């Protein structure tokens, strides 16, 4: 039997309250240095989507949006504010389900989630109409941050941008990779590995990036912990030189979607 790697994940303390234009790379490196630590080859830096969106200036004032007729209809059918409905439509390529319980949208990046990822929690002004959108392209954001962290540390690392998403048939949310760089997204073990009894695996495709995102999100917390970055250590076998195709490569093609 092959022993699995020992994987350790810990939140990174001492980070500032991020705002537009602030240097994420410098803040992360400074926080690590303050802990007497630094990046090692094979580390994975998981960060909450919100800090990336904040730094990229993705906050929107709902009062500045003018709902169109489609947004008015969506708001009426779901009990949402018309401006929020318009924000969701602006970020979506398709509305898949719309009920008072949830608006399930296909985000313009291809990810399927509630409210197109728009959120007001842990945002200054969130109780007065300020909401935060996803980064324009989370995979591009991950590549940019990775390049900066590698240049600053001289180590080969990976970056995952995580957000919490619900799942079909399950209650609750789990951290999911919406952007990543330098990390295996899917490990396809079909025809390449065997089980304990020598049978060749036929259907096993491991969602590596999502699993790492889930670990990081659990360590970071979802409330007032103030630790929007986690370091995952011991998963270096999935970290590689190239940036890769990003989290979008783990999306199921629309023609294979079993829930449409």
From TrEMBL:
> Tell me, what is one Gene Ontology molecular-function annotation carried by this entry?
coenzyme F420-0:L-glutamate ligase activity
The positions making up the signal sequence are none
Q: What keywords is this UniProt entry annotated with?
A: GTP-binding, Ligase, Magnesium, Manganese, Metal-binding, Nucleotide-binding, Potassium
User: What InterPro entries does the record tag this protein with?
Assistant: F420-0_g-glutamyl_ligase (IPR008225), F420-0_gamma-glut_ligase-dom (IPR002847)
State the EC number(s).
6.3.2.31
Q: What are the residue boundaries of the Coenzyme F420:L-glutamate ligase-like domain, all occurrences included?
A: 15-234
Q: Tell me the NCBIfam families matching this sequence.
A: F420_cofE
* Protein's UniProt name: Coenzyme F420-0:L-glutamate ligase
Species name for this entry? Novosphingobium album
